[in-house]
Write a structure and sequence with these properties.
- The chain has nine helices and 14 strands.
- By secondary structure, the chain is an alpha+beta fold.
- The strands form four sheets. Strands 11-10-9-12-13 form a five-stranded antiparallel β-sheet. The chain has a four-stranded antiparallel β-sheet with strand order 5-8-6-7. A three-stranded parallel β-sheet has the order 2-1-4.
- β1, α1 and β2 form a beta-alpha-beta unit.
- α3 crosses α9.
- It is globular and about 50 Å long.
- The chain starts with a strand and ends in a 13-residue tail after the last strand.
Length: 284
């Protein structure tokens, strides 16, 4: 059976951006974060937030997924990142003002940004996170611009898109006059990383406004990354590769906080597919 692209999201926006890249794959869409019949489950290529993947994991249905290690950005040459990034748990955050972000979770109360560490901990706890939540921080505050996302697979940069320019977030008409420079840096960075480059990922890079240098911002699981204006065919083809079993540091596993949050959600059950529309309506 040919694999189908299954997008689990709160709206159809991402599904519509990826649709031109699905080729002969069927496109399935879930608004409620559940899974189709077991007979079809193994033939799915998932695009979903990692919080949704954690729910599948808790249900014993986690697909094989490949992803950068959660602390990857802390392990690479600081010359590529322009800063020293520390990966730790929230209860190990030092006191003071710093750039800090949840390493894996997307929390409404404490998004990535410049925080006093005490304020960050209080906001995270309001959002249900515990002291074991994985975080990343750096005391070096960078002013970034011309932020770009690139799709990397097997040491090659396949496609890319700007996603924030001069403080403006991505929209269909967003352009950057520095996209060629961003691509050149991404290719150089991937080559410099060698075996430390994830087999497949989204790689975010940006221009440091103060030094004028291009830097790596972070790498994320491609199956959980927004496509922005990336070429949809190359994006979806790489997402299918990311839906394979990773080994060692490239094997995705949810963290404890993700599992705790997933257990508080509605249970996952399998339902049937609507052949008339080609969409899946999943229910808890």
């Amino acid at each position: 059976m040919d694999r189908a692209l299954c997008v689990i999201a709160r709206s159809s926006t991402v599904a519509m951006r990826l649709a031109p890249g699905r080729g002969d794959r069927r496109l399935l869409l879930s608004y409620s974060v559940q899974v189709p019949l077991a007979a079809e489950y193994g033939s799915l290529v998932f695009w979903m937030a990692d919080a949704y993947a954690a729910r599948l994991h808790v249900a014993g249905l986690a697909p094989a997924l490949l992803a950068p290690a959660w602390d990857w950005v802390s392990t690479i040459d600081p010359d590529l990142t322009g800063r020293h990034v520390v990966s730790t748990t929230m209860d190990q955050l030092p006191e003071g003002r710093m750039f800090v972000k949840p390493a894996l979770l997307k929390l409404v109360e404490c998004p990535a940004g410049i925080w006093d560490s005490g304020d960050f901990r209080r906001a995270a706890r309001r959002d249900g996170a515990g002291g074991s939540m994985r975080v990343q921080y750096t005391p070096q505050i960078l002013r970034l611009d011309h932020e770009h996302r690139f799709v990397v697979r097997d040491g090659q940069v396949l496609t890319g898109s700007p996603y924030r320019v001069a403080g403006r977030a991505w929209h269909r008409s967003l352009v950057s006059g520095r996209s060629a420079d961003a691509l050149a840096f991404a290719r150089t960075a991937v080559q410099a990383l060698g075996e430390d480059c994830p087999p497949v990922c989204s790689l975010d890079v940006a221009l440091d406004r103060d030094s004028g240098r291009w830097l790596i911002v972070e790498a994320n699981p491609l199956w959980a990354s927004g496509p922005y204006s990336c070429d949809p065919v190359r994006f979806v083809d790489a997402v299918e590769v990311a839906n394979t079993t990773g080994t060692g540091r490239w094997a995705w596993t949810p963290e404890e906080t993700q599992i705790d949050r997933a257990r508080r959600e509605e249970p996952v059950v399998a339902v049937s597919r609507d052949d008339a529309t080609g969409y899946v309506e999943f229910h808890g």
